Amino acid sequence: MSTKAEAAAQLIYPANVQANAFLINVKFLSACFAGAASGILGLENWLGFALFLASTFITSLSIFTINCGGRPAKYLPGGLLELVNPGQDNVFTFILVWTLFYGMSCTRRIEWKTSRD
After folding, report:
1. 88 pLDDT exceeds 90?
2. What is the pLDDT of residue 82?
3. pLDDT digit string (tens) for 31-65?
4. 44 phi and psi, to 5 degrees?
5. pLDDT by residue (tens digit) across 18-28?
6. CB distance 15 to 22 below 8 Å
7. Who's near 37: CB < 8 A, 6+ residues apart?
8. Rounded-to-integer distance, Cα 46 and Cα 26, Å
9. Rounded distance between C-alpha atoms, residue 88 and residue 70, angstroms
10. Looking at residues 89-112, what average pLDDT do you find?
């Protein structure tokens, strides 16, 4: 007889786990690109976070329509709430990339401005 843990492990289908990992990667890359765009554009304070929220919403909407076929509860345990949730790691990634690109673009602006004078 199999134990309860073995029975639960048999319910995990590797192809579905791989597909869910793909969704996590898409959300991660979306946070990276949003952070880079916010930094390059020189957005500060709430405007940068607004861009992050907009990119999270657009990414979630794309996954909702393309990958989930309009039924996220069928594919994700948390349903729509799980799909829209950006995740703590993605927020920190966004802030890290945002500050990196903001610092690089501000440095370039200062160098360009001083070379013109």
Report:
1. no
2. 82
3. 999 999 999 999 989 999 999 999 999 999 998 89
4. -125, 155
5. 777 787 889 89
6. no
7. 51, 55
8. 24
9. 25
10. 86
Token pair recorded at residue 76: 């994700």
**b/e for 32-43, b at 16 or more Cβ within 10 A?**
bebbbbbbeeeb
Give dist(CA 42, CA 102) in Å, integer: 6
What residue type is assigned to position 108 of the chain?
Answer: R
The answer to whether residues 95 and 44 touch, using CB atoms and an 8 Å cutoff, is: no
Q: Residue 116: helix, strand or coil by DSSP?
A: helix
Backbone angles phi and psi of 68, in degrees to 5: -95, -10
Distance CA 38, CA 50 (A): 10
pLDDT at 10 > cutoff 80: no
